[in-house]
Amino acid sequence: MTRNGLFAKFFSFVFAAFMLAPLVVVVGVAFTPEGFLEFPPSGISLRWFQAILDNPDFIDAAIVSLQLGVASATIATVVCIPAALAIGGGRFAGREALQALFLSPLTVPTVVLGIAFLRFLSMMGLNGTFWGLVFCHVVIIVPFVLRLVLASVTGLDPSIARAATSLGAGEWTVFRRITLPAIIPGVVGGWVLAFITSFDELTVTVFIVNPATTTLPVKLFSHITQTTDPLVASVSTVAILFTVGLMLIVDRIYGLDRLLIGEGSR
Q1: With 70 as the cut, is the pLDDT of residue 235 above it?
Q2: What's the CA gap between 41 and 210, in Å, rounded?
Q3: Which of 19, 94, 129, 229 has its CA 20 to 30 A from that of 47?
Q4: CA–CA separation, 177 vs 194, rounded Å?
Q5: 189 vs 83: CA distance, rounded Å
């Protein structure tokens, strides 16, 4: 047992180091005073963080990504809550087909989705619009929300809702005061995961943006194709810190263990 425990700890350490090494390099490069990528940096400088403020295109792209992530994650969550309640709590013909439909975006390559969305939005006159982007991102992130909300719904005790109904509570009251508080960890976890996925999405988004709706990942990709400088690393570092900060806040409020497995309240 001791040898297995030591091996497991060593493997976990090596795996964690392998996963974190690229992030460490990016953060280190962001603080270089030089005008080229350098790691380890020859000194410590905030030059390239100041360059973000001097480049309004990156700030505008970050604002679009934030707005897009919030709108997409919120709509996807609103759609997935009743779907998860129906799939997890109901027994009806087509239940498995409905679940497969919601999870189907995971089985389609993102390049294929991007081309399909480009064609569809062009036919609808929505290509390059903000709400066209929202629609596409909702389709992409719905599976992530559904899985976590569905995990919370599966753990619900239906006798509690039946008891409330027998005491005169209406369906909306039962949902608002019993069902929703019980599944809220899965809902919040799904929203956070969906927001991060939407904020980071590039492959599909690059097909359907225009200069007015350019997101931060697309802007970074475009910048890299033209030149490679530490500005990309500084922007990436800010994005990493933002994501880590968001996860820490959520962890303090609900706990990441409960959110990531969609565990409902007991």
Answers
A1: yes
A2: 36
A3: 19
A4: 25
A5: 16
